[in-house]
Amino acid sequence: MFVSLILAAQTSSFAAGITPLAEKVSHRLSYMKDVAGYKAQNHLPIEDPVQEAKVLDSAKSEAEKLGLDPTTVEPFIIAQIKAAKAVEYRYLADWLAQPETGWQPRPLDKVRQDIARLSKEILEQLARDLKSGRFTSDERSSFFKVVHEPNLKESDKQQLFSALLAIRLAK
């Protein structure tokens, strides 16, 4: 009984620890409306393989510096990129049906600076969290509650969370 109470306390304290990471992931995704709006106004495609490659390379390099295994971080970064693009496409679809008035997106270069800062913060949080213990499927509901951006589907959250569970510290 005593052992199960200790394990429950450790699990719940770590589960509470996923909240800062989930908040950062959600905050990063909140910029996708500006990205989609800027791209729509400037007739730019959602798909930007050159930018995606820069984001992935930068994240893998930063992950390595932080003591994370870059090969296990890569699927999580890709999941973030896919979720971001899905959100952008959904905004575009919404605007086709009903254009949004009275709103202007922020300049893309400024938004990308904020996204880069948040991406680094996400990796730093991941490194801190993993040094305290591994993520488990028990944190799923906490992660899903916090990551709740418009146009983000449950399947997007599941891909993000599954990739998160696979991240490991470097050996």
UniProtKB/TrEMBL annotation:
Its EC number is 5.4.99.5. GO terms for molecular function: chorismate mutase activity. Residues 1-92 form the Chorismate mutase domain. Keywords: Isomerase, Signal. Pathway: Metabolic intermediate biosynthesis; prephenate biosynthesis; prephenate from chorismate: step 1/1. InterPro entries: Chorismate_II_sf, Chorismate_mutase-related, Chorismate_mutase_periplasmic, CM_dom_sf, CM_II_prokaryot. The keyword Isomerase applies. It is an enzyme of class 5 (isomerase). It catalyses: chorismate = prephenate. One of its GO terms (biological process) is chorismate metabolic process. It comes from the Bacteria. Catalyzes the Claisen rearrangement of chorismate to prephenate. This is Chorismate mutase. It comes from Labrys okinawensis. The lineage of its organism: Bacteria, Pseudomonadati, Pseudomonadota, Alphaproteobacteria, Hyphomicrobiales.
